[in-house]
């Protein structure tokens, strides 16, 4: 029998305390806890239909047939859902992003969060938020943080059962804005899955992981107290520590470009001149510039004057995954 299709919408998230390196690569159990905010303005909508007449999974992303590597990753993820289905059927998966895929904005978190919710519902599984977060984690670690709403903490755990994300403040708690300054639209050469596997080769990783509970507690407290100065200091430190690990791995990963470093300097200059702003950078050259709602116009004005900035995407805090 063919079951009805299910559709879900999820937002990507930006980590303020970063996830880098796994205790278990296959299960994506992280070495350290992480903390993030969902991005309301960006979303992925995915529908899944399991059908008895298909010989293999069929994946469409933004109206195009997906590349073999993407299909393979999604099929491997759906196998986890299929293990729990009485009849193992293949699926048609149709996914759309409201932001351009090639814009240099990571979409795997929203992609696997939406896929986890749509596929589990289509399969007739009734998963609570924790179970859904654990499932999304298997597709992309950071996807587990796109399941709960607003400001989210990923409790790292040590095995599958206790590695999932929880919300610690709703989206409306603090009007924080992420301005994503795109300096390069091309796809990164070393993706995060391969990058996580290199983290342990850096002599700095153990120091980063050991100090993580302290940074995370400071960051959570800064968010709960809406203390931007404390937030800025710890968010930049955490991003710089992750990039120090990346840059000292074997082989080394250098995601920064000249324009990335130019933006890092600019943000620090603006802050020293009294503008409350800070940066964080993921596994790519683009810079996430964070500020409070009341300062957005001024920060955006500064960014527009920079020749190196090709585009700016703006988002406040968003909700969790939703079935539609
Ligand atoms: O979920 P992944 O495997 O794409 O890893 C995400 C890694 C970073 O974006 C660099 C950090 C993070 O915590 O989101």
Structural topology:
Elements: E1 6-10, E2 13-17, E3 22-24, E4 29-30, E5 34-38, E6 44-51, E7 58-61, E8 64-65, H1 68-82, E9 90-97, H2 108-122, H3 129-139, E10 151-155, E11 164-169, E12 176-182, H4 192-198, H5 205-210, H6 212-224, H7 228-247, H8 258-272, E13 277-280, E14 287-292, H9 296-304, E15 311-315, E16 322-323
Parallel strand pairs: 7-9
Antiparallel strand pairs: 1-6, 1-16, 2-5, 3-4, 5-10, 6-9, 7-8, 10-11, 12-14, 12-15, 13-14
The structure holds (3R)-3-hydroxy-3-methyl-5-(phosphonooxy)pentanoic acid.
Strand content bin: 15-25%
Oligomerization category of the chains in this entry: single chain
Query: Helix and strand succession?
Result: EEEEEEEEHEHHEEEHHHHHEEHEE
* Strand arrangement, major sheet: 8-7-9-6-1-16
Tell me the radius of gyration. Answer: 19 Å
Provide a count of the helices.
Answer: 9
Overall pLDDT confidence: 96
Which class do the helix and strand fractions yield? alpha+beta
């Amino acid at each position: 029998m063919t079951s009805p299709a299910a559709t879900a919408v999820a937002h990507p998230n930006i980590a303020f305390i970063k996830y880098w390196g796994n205790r278990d690569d296959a299960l994506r159990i992280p070495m350290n806890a992480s903390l993030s905010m969902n991005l309301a303005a960006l979303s992925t909508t995915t529908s899944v239909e399991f059908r008895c007449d298909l010989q293999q999974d069929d994946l469409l992303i933004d109206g195009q047939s997906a590349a073999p590597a993407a299909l393979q990753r999604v099929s491997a993820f759906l196998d986890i859902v299929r293990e729990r289905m009485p009849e193992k059927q293949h699926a048609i998966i149709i996914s759309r992003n409201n932001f351009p895929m090639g814009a240099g904005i990571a979409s795997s978190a929203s992609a696997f969060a939406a896929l986890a919710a749509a596929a589990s519902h289509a399969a007739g599984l009734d998963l609570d938020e924790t179970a859904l977060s654990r499932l999304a984690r298997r597709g992309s670690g950071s996807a587990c943080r796109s399941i709960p709403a607003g400001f989210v903490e990923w409790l790292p755990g040590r095995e599958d059962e206790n590695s999932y994300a929880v919300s610690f403040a709703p989206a409306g708690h603090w009007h924080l804005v992420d301005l994503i300054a795109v300096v390069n639209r091309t796809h990164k050469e070393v993706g995060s899955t391969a990058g996580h596997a290199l983290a342990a080769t850096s002599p700095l990783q153990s120091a980063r992981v050991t100090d993580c509970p302290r940074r995370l507690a400071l960051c959570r407290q800064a968010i709960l107290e809406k203390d931007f100065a404390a937030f800025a200091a710890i968010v930049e430190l955490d991003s710089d520590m992750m990039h120090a690990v990346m840059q000292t791995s074997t082989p080394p990963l250098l995601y920064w470009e000249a324009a990335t470093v130019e933006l890092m300097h600019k943000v620090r200059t603006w802050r020293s001149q009294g503008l409350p702003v800070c940066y964080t950078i993921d596994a790519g050259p683009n810079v996430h510039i964070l500020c409070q709602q009341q300062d957005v116009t001024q920060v955006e004005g500064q960014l527009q004057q920079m020749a190196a900035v090709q585009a700016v995407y703006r988002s406040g805090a968003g909700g969790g995954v939703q079935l539609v």
